[in-house]
Amino acid sequence: MSEKIKVGILGATGMVGQRFVTLLENHPWFELVTLAASAHSAGKTYEEAIGGRWKMETPMPEFVKNMVVKNVADVEDVVKDVDFVFSAVNMPKDEIRAIEEEYAKTETPVVSNNSAHRWTPDVPMVVPEINPQHYAIIEHQRKRLGTTHGFIAVKPNCSIQAYTPALAAWQEFEPHEVIVSTYQAISGAGKTFKDWPEMVGNIIPFISGEEAKSEKEPLKVFGHVDEAKGEIVPFDGPLKITSQCIRVPVLNGHTATVFINFGKNPTKDELIDRLVNYTSKAAELGLPHAPKQFIQYLTEDDRPQVLKDVDYEGGMGVSIGRLREDSIFDWKFVGLAHNTLRGAAGGALESAEMLKALGYITKK
Fold first, then answer.
1. Which stretches are annotated as coiled coil (predicted)?
2. Are domains 5-155+345-357 and 160-337 of this chain identical in fold?
3. Is 200 helix (H, G, I), strand (E, B) or coil?
4. pTM score of the predicted model
């Protein structure tokens, strides 16, 4: 009998679900045993359910091809063989909130890639390298849900991964005004160029809901656990972020251009030092998907580039470059992160690894 923790994927046939499948192949701690999707896919083998819609660069792993997909709405059937689940379902947000709570109430932890619960006050929204202390709120959430083991934890929006790590590294210098533009890959919309040919050679200056996420989610990440209220209180200091989010003809990798003012007056050497020497509990614990060096600083004028840098640290690291003084703001820089690895399934998987290391996810 395997000693690994058994996991299922909700929404296994979508792009993020497919990424979870590839990441869980031969995982040292977790064993993928259950796949769930919509009623349309239920009862088919995974290979049949996917059909010609496999969107990963690598082939579908052999071990999942003949797994029979379950109906994500049949909660009791899905959870009977798993210790926890990843959620990547594609539903209206109110339905996602309801079904994720339904799963949690079966005493099954839910680690979600979805945005539906990001602003639920007692649901931790964590980048493992930045705010794992927020997982302490889970005890309050369990009281609300009436569970002893089940809970919901989420990861933040994919686009903020390209610049929020730099803000975390520079907190001592009191960043307080930030203008950010994100240039977002089409895989963030669950697409490839094959099924979105109109994006070839095109730019779309609108991504629904992204600008609000880019401006607000870092404030929750930088917030604190209020034990008296039993919730995460977003950072209420002077940090203000304004953004524009643009879809660009790139398959993987979200790039951000950032202008920033500080309360203090750091030098360029100090800013670079804090980036490259940034340490985290995730690295200290040796999580399987934690990058050895979370942030790299690139000195070349034309870096970071998607083709050269998006796979840094297996797609789990963040690349920063073009740090220079600005004529209006204090400093400006360019950031890059892999949106379906660092920003989506990989970030959720590392979150589950942190939850396991901290004792929140265990065998049932």
1. none
2. no
3. coil
4. 0.97
